[in-house]
Amino acid sequence: MKASANRQLECTHLPVLSSREQGWENILVEQFQPPAGEARFDQGDEHAIYLSLAPRPVHSLQVQGGKTYAGLYGKGDISIMPAQVPFFSRWDGDDRFLLIRITSRFIQTVAKETINRNPDRLELLPIFQTRDPQLEAIGTLLLTELKQEASSRLYIESLANVLAVHLLRQYATAMPQVTVYEGGLPQRQLSQVLDYMNDHLDHDIKLADLAALLNMSQFHFSHLFKQAIGASPYQYLLQQRIERAKQLLKEDDRSIMDIALMCGFNSHSHLSKQFRQVTGMTPKAYRAS
To answer: Can you give the pLDDT at residue 288?
Structure first.
């Protein structure tokens, strides 16, 4: 996330995990485990989603948009804090939560690309305690990536797009109906994308790069790509990188580290983890088989 996201909770508690140094664009994800206390959130130009991870319910008082709410927040409970709306919270016990910040500029871009209307008229509603299984699932996936040694930028961008579209569908003042195109990518466009991915397996491929090849929004590209081949862009890219690694392990005597880098993995351990999940064995064992 860019410099505009460098606002912290205005309290003494630092995150135990943060994506701040991982180069994620448009989104900042941080996990906090503070003791009883209070905090002010300076939203600035970012929307924020609070997702409770607390194993035991915590009594919390929250103030935003001139309204006050008090209640027990347990695992899975969500609050949404729109950009430019000051937010205050006080809690009376050990808390654990995920804070997801997403830039309003990115939300506006997604709105313009997916619903083809003036995004300046779209605002997110302030939401206190609510349940949203899809939003919780997205948060859980982001937290899982946050805990990884290395995350895929393509996967993070995909999650950020899904998150933005869901917020627009469920929590925007205009409640827009997002158009979803059916039928998958035409063969010519699909071949163009697959060739690009095959030629750049050793690069940090971005979802924006793939969508730009077809002059298409990232959300619609991801949807049509999955319809066409039955896998998301991230899943397909990972499959192809593993296949390339399998080929090189059998046909090339380079080190496993070198092969990892040639296939788009940033370390020996990153390749080993993904390779084992797909094939059931380590790269070393596969080479020797």
So the answer is: 87
Question: What domains can you pick out in the chain, each with its CATH number?
Answer: 3-171 (2.60.120.10), 187-234 (1.10.10.60), 242-288 (1.10.10.60)
Q: Report the DSSP beta bridge partners of residue 102.
A: 27, 47
- Cβ–Cβ contacts within 10 Å for residue 253, how many? 9
Residues 130-156: pLDDT tens digits?
999 999 999 999 999 998 877 788 889
Least confident of 49-58, 71-80, 130-139, 227-236: 227-236
pTM summary value = 0.69
Cα separations in angstroms, 189 against 122, 198, 221, 227: 32, 14, 10, 13
Residue 61, CA distances (Å) to 33, 36, 39, 85, 129 in order = 17, 12, 11, 16, 11
- Asked if residue 5 has pLDDT above 50, the reply is no
The closest of 42, 44, 16 to 30, measured between CA atoms, is: 16
Q: What is the pLDDT of residue 111?
A: 84
283 within 8 A of 271, measured Cβ to Cβ: yes
